[in-house]
Amino acid sequence: MSAGHEHGHDGCGCGCGGHRAAGPASRDWRIAGGEEMVCPCLGLTKAAILEAIQGGAHTLALLKVLTGAGRGRDCRRLHPEGRSCEADLASLVEIYGQAPAGWPSGGCGH
User: Is residue 81 domain-resident?
Assistant: First the structure.
């Protein structure tokens, strides 16, 4: 599938890495505490997401695959703000994710 492929679910990314998160993050994750909820559907806090990032999930696609966050079919219905957590996940990866030395830039999961 290409980055422009269609999805049959409720606005949540598939984890292919070819999508941009819709909308801005819900908060400034640089100052948010570790107990702040990122993915209410799965009960994942900022601390849990940072643990996954530190464990190697340095792209949005990897983070979604490793945690399951942002991949549900009912994200918008279950989230208290009526939205997917994908923009928040993308923000956390942008702030805290670092590709391993020698990791190619661009391509799948950039």
Answer: yes
